[in-house]
Design goal:
By secondary structure, the protein is an alpha/beta fold. The protein has helices at 8-27, 43-58, 74-86, 123-130, 142-153, 173-182, 197-203, 249-252, 266-286; strands at 3-4, 33-39, 62-68, 92-95, 162-166, 186-190, 206-209, 229-232, 236-237, 243-244, 258-259. It has two domains: 29-113, 3-Layer(aba) Sandwich (Rossmann fold); 142-266, NAD(P)-binding Rossmann-like Domain (Rossmann fold). The strands form three sheets. Strands 1-11-8-7-5-6 form a six-stranded parallel sheet, with helices on both faces. Strand 5, helix 6 (173-182) and strand 6 (186-190) form a beta-alpha-beta unit. Helix 5 packs across helix 9. The longest helix has 21 residues, at 266-286. The protein is globular and about 55 Å long. The site of guanine has 9 residues, from strand 4 and helix 5.
């Protein structure tokens, strides 16, 4: 039987720990507080940010969504971030991506101060991952961190495994390639220009898809040995407007050892990682 890698049992277990940690922090004078900057009305961003707020509140943390209009000018946008950087009551801040076109030239990772960058996009946070010098002072990007947690919690070995990642984004593909490498896996980072991609994915033990193309990964990417783990990062809508992943779940599920569902797989793991990072950023304040 194929193992369905649902996030639900992990969410239940980790939520309990996070609630206790949050209570401890509040008792010690720090109420974890996240500010989410949301620009415009991107439907996926509206859903993601609402889920982030809901989970923060569920564990006892505070979360405000700062909703800015789609056509906000650059100066006002930067001023909003600077005010949050200066606000000692706020321990974590994220800017929900994508940014509107007129702001997309900005290096978003450099805008939020490193100690509040719980998305792990700041150059110092990325460097800690790149150099395998992770510490409690640094934050790992939430989706990559969530994927590693999902595998470890399901006792899926990473060391010495061959991993194919499809998608080379700054948010998922690149940091995830580093994390897997730090865990002693051997990684092939594939993308839209990769030749013979199916030959690569068929050879790997773990396949991660983070391309954002509905149902792209079908049986032609999968080995016939039924020995692979498939992780689906995609949150797409299919031709009927229904939520679906990058992986054609129905075509692939019986051909693999384990697979994440969409929804209920990687998405909630991203949010759990964000909450973990928020509490870490808050704990870092205790020692100041
Ligand atoms: N948009 C899609 N995923 C993410 C994420 O993990 N963080 C932010 N800030 N924006 C996103």
């Amino acid at each position: 039987m194929t193992q369905i890698l649902s996030s639900a049992p992990i969410k239940k277990k980790i939520s309990k720990d996070l609630k206790n940690e949050c209570k401890f922090l509040i008792e010690n004078g720090i109420h974890p507080y996240l500010k989410v900057i949301l620009i415009g009305n991107n439907p996926a961003s509206l859903i993601y940010t609402a889920s982030k707020k809901k989970f923060c509140e569920r564990i006892g943390a505070k979360c405000d969504i700062i909703a800015l209009s789609e056509d906000i000018d650059q100066l006002t946008f930067l001023k909003t971030i600077e005010e949050i950087n200066q606000d000692s009551n706020v321990q974590g801040c994220i800017i929900q991506l994508p940014l509107p076109k007129h702001l997309s030239h900005l290096d978003v990772g450099k805008l939020i101060s490193q100690e509040k960058d719980i998305d792990g996009f700041h150059p110092d946070n990325l460097y800690a991952v790149l150099s395998n010098h992770e510490s409690t002072d640094h934050f790992v990007s939430c989706t990559p961190k969530g994927i590693i947690t999902l595998l470890l919690e399901n006792n899926i070995e990473i060391a010495n495994k061959r991993v194919a990642i499809i998608g080379r984004s700054m948010i998922v593909g690149k940091p995830l390639a580093c994390l897997f490498t730090n865990h002693d896996a051997t990684v092939t980072l594939c993308h839209s220009k990769t030749l013979n991609i199916r030959e690569i994915t068929k050879e790997c033990d773990i396949i991660v898809s983070a391309v954002g193309i509905a149902n792209m990964v079908d049986e032609s990417f999968i080995s016939s040995k039924k020995n692979q783990v498939v992780i689906d990062v995609g949150m797409n809508t299919d031709t009927e407007g229904l939520l679906c992943g990058d992986v054609d779940f129905e075509k692939v599920k019986d051909l693999v050892l384990a697979i994440t569902p969409v929804p209920g797989g990687v998405g909630p793991m991203t949010i759990i990682s964000l909450a973990q990072n928020l509490l870490q950023a808050s704990k870092n304040r205790l020692s100041l």
